[in-house]
From TrEMBL:
SUPFAM superfamilies, alphabetized: PLP-dependent transferases (SSF53383)
Biological process, per Gene Ontology: biotin biosynthetic process
UniProt keyword terms in alphabetical order: Aminotransferase, Plasmid, Pyridoxal phosphate, Pyruvate, Transferase
Family: Belongs to the class-III pyridoxal-phosphate-dependent aminotransferase family.
UniProt-recorded Gene Ontology molecular function terms: adenosylmethionine-8-amino-7-oxononanoate transaminase activity; beta-alanine:pyruvate transaminase activity; pyridoxal phosphate binding
RNA-binding in keyword set: no
InterPro entries: Aminotrans_3, Aminotrans_3_PPA_site, PyrdxlP-dep_Trfase, PyrdxlP-dep_Trfase_major, PyrdxlP-dep_Trfase_small
CDD domains per the UniProt record, alphabetical: OAT_like
Cofactor(s) listed: pyridoxal 5'-phosphate
EC number: 2.6.1.18
Name this protein carries in UniProt: Beta alanine--pyruvate transaminase protein
Length: 444
């Protein structure tokens, strides 16, 4: 189809869009032109309330001058410099600042920071660090990684192998992995407020997989402490604690993928702080730079870092890294982002709003098609019953309807997922909920 006449003569043909039904989208595009605070403006000048912090990333809202000014300054001072056998001050400065708020606080000692360019790169980096560390301490047979059904860990080959979303996996070859069962149990836990009460026994799956594969083949287990992309799936009470205990028992490293939960989403700086469970590695991205400049970071424990700092001093300890690891402009954006988070108390603001958010969301209970509502911190999900033989279409229609009414939500399958910027006001929470409620009443 010729797309050249759509939207101001702009051609939509050449951009192959990610995770998008390209032909459907290009026939009826939704184009965002600018953003400020809690709102986008589309190319037709309509204001759109951001119910998703972009894609779980703009935690401080949009158009933050402090970030754009820092980026401008950095671009004109040092636009790029390599970090392979070279360094530049701002990468070390950003790592030091991150260490001060590292997951779990000073006692957790998760303060060695490896920079990447995205969440997917953070995940593959963490998997490689885990395997390399095991080998470095004499456990070289440990190369398998345990993930979880419905997990999302980005789109690298490592990430899709440990991830548990079938459409991301079925076409591609994978690294050695196996999966625990997911923790979504609507039958027992529907409409739970916060963490669900049932399902701690699902953590026994790690023990079961140890019995199946042998602990000596397993390097690490990776989970999202709260999974976002599969439609907001929460850990049952006590579940993460149990995973940690089993991992310790068998010398398995534990990785928390905090690409979504990092930087205040749950009302604490990291999910590690929320749950009080300390893993060996934590992956982050998104909120690290408020989504402005692509960047990720892996927090490693000192034990892991020190375990790899062996051999002669002139030996490269980890054969891994990216051209853009510690990119100076991304670091500038990250430092400015951290300053905003601190000045405005955003890393804990979700805790102040969590109850209000929970009550507002759960007021949608009883509306047409709603089979479950889940929430934690400033994250929410409304799960709809699928249409017969056309799963995903109902939520998609609600998504389009909300967009037309000036609200951006996100849908996966028949689940509406919500994660507004952490600057959201109560009135805007009301608007999010009432717009969704009206769309649900209209949805067939
Ligand atoms: C938990 C988790 N891990 C990894 C990723 C991948 O991040 P990216 O899209 O930046 O590669 C995502 C993205 O949503 C995520 O939610």
């Amino acid at each position: 189809m010729d797309q050249t006449n759509l939207k101001n003569e702009r051609s939509l043909e050449n951009f192959w869009m990610p995770f998008t039904a390209n032909r459907q989208f290009k026939a009826l595009p939704r184009l965002l032109a600018s953003a400020e605070g809690m709102h986008y403006t589309d190319v037709d000048g309509n204001s759109v309330l951001d119910g998703t912090a972009g894609l779980w990333c703009c935690n401080a809202g949009h158009g933050r001058k402090k970030i754009s000014q820092a980026v401008e300054r950095q671009l004109s001072t040092l636009d790029f410099a390599p970090t392979f056998q070279m360094g530049h001050p701002i990468a070390f400065d950003f790592a030091s600042k991150l260490a001060k708020i590292a997951p779990g606080g000073p006692d957790a000692k998760l303060d060695r920071v490896f920079f990447t360019g995205s969440g997917s790169e953070s995940v593959d980096t963490a998997l490689k660090i885990a395997i390399a560390y095991q080998r470095s301490i004499g456990q070289g047979t440990r190369t398998r990684i345990i993930g979880r059904e419905k997990g999302y860990h980005g789109v690298g080959f490592g990430g899709i192998s440990v991830g548990g979303l079938v459409n991301n996996r079925r076409v591609f070859p994978q690294i050695p992995a196996d999966h625990m069962r997911h923790t979504l149990d609507i039958e027992r836990n529907a409409f739970s407020k916060g963490l669900p009460a049932n399902g701690i026994e699902l953590a026994d799956d790690l023990e079961r997989l140890v019995q199946l594969h042998g602990a000596e083949t397993i390097a690490a287990a990776i989970v999202e402490p709260m999974s976002g992309s599969a439609g907001v799936i929460l850990p049952p009470k006590g579940y993460l604690e149990k995973l940690r205990a089993t991992a310790d028992k068998y010398g398995i490293m534990l990785i928390f993928d905090e690409v979504i939960t990092g930087f205040g989403r749950l009302g604490t700086p990291f999910a590690v702080d929320y749950f009080g469970v300390v893993p060996d590695l934590v992956t982050t991205a998104k909120g690290l730079t408020n989504g402005t400049i692509p960047m990720g970071a892996v927090f490693a424990s000192r034990k892991v870092y020190d375990g790899l700092m062996v051999g002669p001093d002139n030996a490269i300890e980890l054969f891994h890294g990216y051209t853009y690891s510690g990119h100076p402009v991304a670091c500038a954006a990250g430092i400015a982002t951290l300053e905003i988070y601190e000045e405005e108390g955003l890393l804990t603001r979700a805790a102040e709003l969590a109850e209000y958010w929970q009550d507002a969301l759960h007021s949608l209970k009883g509306l047409p098609h709603v089979v479950d509502i889940r929430n934690l911190g400033l994250v929410g999900a409304v799960e709809l019953a699928p249409r017969d033989g056309a799963s995903g279409t109902r939520a998609y229609d609600v998504f389009v309807d909300c967009f037309k009414k000036g609200l951006l939500i996100r849908v996966t399958g028949d689940i509406i997922a919500l994660s507004p910027p952490l600057i959201v006001e109560k009135g805007q929470i009301e608007t999010i909920v009432s717009t969704i409620g009206d769309a649900l009443k209209r949805a067939a």
